[in-house]
Design brief:
- With 377 residues, this protein is an alpha+beta fold.
- It is 32% helix and 25% strand.
- Strands 5-4-8-2-12 form a 5-stranded antiparallel β-sheet, sandwiched between helices. Strands 1, 3, 6 and 7 form a 4-stranded mixed β-sheet that branches. Strands 9, 10, 11 and 13 form a 4-stranded antiparallel β-sheet that branches.
- Helix 6 packs across helix 8.
- The protein is rod-shaped, with a radius of gyration of 46 Å.
């Protein structure tokens, strides 16, 4: 049986607990413990003597609990068998964590369900070596920061999910606004975790939520992001979503025949209401003037040229456009549409003229409908 004379550990700093492979010693062996460590002796599954920083010679006066179990003779180099665990007492400040699965949370403002993930880091220090070894480490040869995160992952995920969902719901925060509250979230989660870590002999130094994320390719997130971008653009340009929809309908109607009827039908379908009718009419008129088209398909009464609605004279042949309602005529003197009769109700002038060339009665217009001679006035 090989007896080891010097026992120490100088491994990486991310190892919280390390079990020495040597298990057979004698009472003159040297135990070297660094200032950032503690060494705990186990015999028959019991945590016995604990050694702090320094060089220790394993003598009966130095290992009283262990010597009682194995009855070491005083002053002689007697062999004994036990396990030695080195515990790292430094502050482990950069332990990374992250949600393995996304958490579906409904955005309280926009109503969409977003798969939210989170990540960050925390720091710990072993506060009670015996408690950590007995309650958490057991007999495994090494306990690292990775194992610590793995053991506490369920606790971490439960607290993070519950608090983020509660925070968004109670404060009516969208996913895009939650990042302004990361410190508040971190402090609240740390307070809940502190007591649990202490039960295992670990002190939680700090806890940070670094970021809360949603996958960029998630359909709900893409839709929400694009909608907010459009809203911001309309705010800069100075119009609303309803107006934008009206513009879209008008532009589509202008490209098709029967635009006016299409616009009104679309406006009613969108539920824009009576108040929007005036706006649509104005916008339609602006659209028509801009494109030079006709909202009602008006044509000249003489040459058939396309005209804008409401014009009095044809821009191609000069013919006056007489579109009178039943029982009304256009006064040849003042041009107003008045009830038919002998005299104009607006200016008192005669409503009928006679062509000086052929004598035909001319109700309105600047040309004789029979011979085409230009009339005076």
């Amino acid at each position: 049986m090989a007896l080891f004379s010097v026992l120490k550990y100088e491994g990486p700093n991310d190892v919280l607990v390390w079990k020495a492979p040597q298990e057979d010693f004698n009472t003159k062996s040297q135990l070297i413990v660094h200032e950032s460590q503690e060494a705990v002796f186990f015999k028959d599954g019991q945590a016995l003597d604990l050694f702090g920083a320094g060089r220790h010679t394993l003598e009966t006066q130095n290992i009283p609990l262990l010597s009682k179990l194995i009855n070491l003779p005083f002053g002689k180099e007697s062999p004994f068998h036990c396990e030695v665990y080195f515990v790292n007492k430094t502050h482990s400040m950069d332990i990374r964590w992250g949600t393995s699965n996304h958490i579906p949370i409904q955005d309280p403002v926009y109503g969409v369900i977003l798969p939210i993930g989170a990540n960050g880091q925390f720091g710990v220090q072993v506060e009670d070596s015996r408690k950590l070894l007995v309650k958490l480490v057991g007999t495994i040869p090494a306990f690292t920061q990775v194992e610590l995160v793995k053991y506490f992952r369920g606790l971490l995920m439960t607290n993070i999910k519950d608090f983020i969902a509660k925070k968004m719901t109670q404060d009516k925060l969208t996913f895009l606004e939650i990042h302004a509250h990361l410190k508040e979230i971190s402090d609240a989660i740390a307070q809940d975790l502190q007591a649990v870590f202490q039960d295992y002999g670990i002190k939680l130094i700090n806890f940070f939520v670094g970021s809360i994320i949603v996958p960029e390719d998630d359909p709900s997130y893409k839709q929400l992001r694009d909608a907010l971008a459009r809203k911001a653009e309309m705010g800069v340009l100075g119009y609303t979503y309803q107006q934008q929809r009206t513009f879209d309908v008008l532009e589509g109607a202008a490209k098709n025949e029967g635009g006016g009827a299409a616009v009104m039908g679309a406006g009613m379908g969108l539920g824009m209401g009576v108040n929007l009718g005036g706006f649509m009419g104005q916008a339609m008129g602006q659209n028509i003037n801009g494109f030079g088209g006709s909202s009602s398909g008006c044509t000249c009464v003489r040459c058939g040229a396309a005209l804008r609605d409401g014009v009095r004279f044809c821009s191609e042949c000069g013919a006056e456009q007489v579109r009178q309602s039943p029982g009304t005529v256009r006064c040849p003197n003042c041009g107003e549409m008045v009830p038919s009769g002998k005299f104009c109700a607006a200016c008192g002038g005669q409503l009928q003229r006679f062509c000086p060339e052929c004598g035909t009665a001319v109700a309105s217009g600047n040309f004789c409908p029979n011979c085409g001679k230009k009339l005076g006035g």
